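Progress report, Aim 2. The chain analyzed during this reporting quarter is listed below.
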Amino acid sequence: MQPVITHEGDDLPTLFLHLKDLENGCFYDLSAATTIVTAKFRQKNTATVLQTVVCTKVDSGIHGWVKMEWPATGLDVTFGNYEIEVSADFNGKILTANVYFWNDDVTDDAKTLPVKVREDF
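Predicted structure tokens for the chain:
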């Protein structure tokens, strides 16, 4: 899987994520007001979550799309390899994504979405 590439201290890129049910091949309906999608960001091979970002539903979430925008200091980290884990809370029932579709809707089978933060100069 190709990583998301960004730089130390940046505020972009905004990530568009598509959540899909692998059993029936349909994208999740995230449109219920009680459904909340979060993205946790951490350095690879560590257990410490650096950021938990609440994603915004795209087109009310009915087709499974959400948008993740980095908080103002979200990428104020040391350069290196990081990862994102996305989960949806369906009114208390949690679903953690294990396949990622981001930006181009190409299937990426992984437990986390890799992020490479490059050194700023």
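DSSP finds no helices and eleven strands in the chain. The two ends are 26 Å apart (CA to CA). These observations will guide the mutagenesis work planned for the next reporting period.
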